[in-house]
Amino acid sequence: MQSEESKERQSIAVEFSIGEHVDCLDSVNKWCNGEIVSVSNYQHSFLYQKKGTCVKVHFTGWTAKYDEWLDIQVPNERERLKKQWRRGMAF
To answer: pTM for this one?
Structure first.
């Protein structure tokens, strides 16, 4: 049987998918177009591994050097990521 935390983590994980276009607040507080390029249960870093549901955002027009991992279970990081509305999408 799954715990409440596990169920919540799964529902957040399916909220964003690879290839999805998003608006993302970058490190200098500017909203930019981006794309989800990876989804993971861990944030990968040579300094540490933070458990959680993370998405990797590639900023449109920038090199992969500026890609960012966001842990969408952390409220401050979650607020930096918004789905883009596309024609034909329901509200």
So the answer is: 0.69
